[in-house]
């Protein structure tokens, strides 16, 4: 866990958000429920709900945010601004001071670049740098330019002055769709770009980078990260890839509503078949949930009702939050199951069972029931050999003895 509490010059804050709730059409009850939900989403204990509320309501200033766009489709920004939940975009823009965004800035040209320079100078070591999009490393990054500057030039100028960096979306986190083969621009994510370019803080210390992968990233994960920082004055616990553990600490497979069908061996074999229509597991259709870490099943997406995420509406997860999976594995390719590997064979759900069991079927049933297939077949062979030997002995005992007659 990385701590920013030691940064100098606490941020001075403006009007309190608690005084403006009515202007946003938010009831006090709804606001408390929203804060309680975010407390749980951040993995904080229930007793921390008061501090989260205070961070939202009583904060007297807003951390400055500079939002850069590189190689991307702007989908992460769109997902934030077009969320149907009425409080997401209003709360996030009230919690931060968005000083520069090439998508949302009213100014253009020289005025926009002047706003960027003034914000950096005014908020040294106190602003949060949000980057959306990958960095093209080939040919010095000439395939993406803003104000005649490559992403590398902008990162060298801006990143060392930031308190922390947030790489939002899969493109900024690890390269995203631009890094798919043949990757003509040699696109990489912000952590790799920093390592290859040697970008650190101005004092030479490592620059903390939080990655929020997703295509697009969930706006709630960004909001929760900002609230965590405002509440505890430090960054949340991160995994080895820089992702907040509260959002990316578990596999999609672990919370998927179709998981019981996986455990029971009920799989859709093709789109539109009986299993697919009945909501069975999509593993055999290429679902990457068993190897992808994200909180999609828990928070869903879009605020438009239950099951509003890819697997919920019947399409396999394609692993957009997982480096090396999304945009790299074929959609139909089956996932590597991390938590539990399914047997190679399952009985049909509606299988007929005529006649008695043969030796082979008994051995297979024993394997599925928990024994090893090799052991079951071997045991059957040994049992058959033992039965043959016993039959031979019995035959020898039962054969009548004949005495030779004297001549």
UniProtKB/TrEMBL annotation:
InterPro entries: Cytochrome-c3_hydrogenase_C, NADH_UbQ_OxRdtase-like_20kDa, NiFe-Hase_small_C_sf, NiFe_Hase_small_N_sf, NiFe_hydrogenase_ssu, TAT_signal. It is found in: Cell envelope. One of its GO terms (cellular component) is cell envelope. The keyword RNA-binding does not apply. Residues 388-407 are annotated as: Disordered. Keywords: 3Fe-4S, 4Fe-4S, Iron, Iron-sulfur, Metal-binding, Oxidoreductase, Signal. Its main location: other. Residues 73-228 form the NADH:ubiquinone oxidoreductase-like 20kDa subunit domain. Gene3D superfamilies: Cytochrome-c3 hydrogenase, C-terminal domain, NADH:ubiquinone oxidoreductase-like, 20kDa subunit. Residues 248-327 form the Cytochrome-c3 hydrogenase C-terminal domain. Coiled coil: none annotated. Its EC number is 1.12.99.6. It is an enzyme of class 1 (oxidoreductase). Its cofactor is [4Fe-4S] cluster; [3Fe-4S] cluster. It catalyses: H2 + A = AH2. One of its GO terms (biological process) is anaerobic respiration. PROSITE patterns: TAT. GO terms for molecular function: 3 iron, 4 sulfur cluster binding; 4 iron, 4 sulfur cluster binding; electron transfer activity; ferredoxin hydrogenase activity; hydrogenase (acceptor) activity; metal ion binding. Heterodimer of a large and a small subunit. Belongs to the [NiFe]/[NiFeSe] hydrogenase small subunit family. This is hydrogenase (acceptor). It comes from Thermochromatium tepidum ATCC 43061.
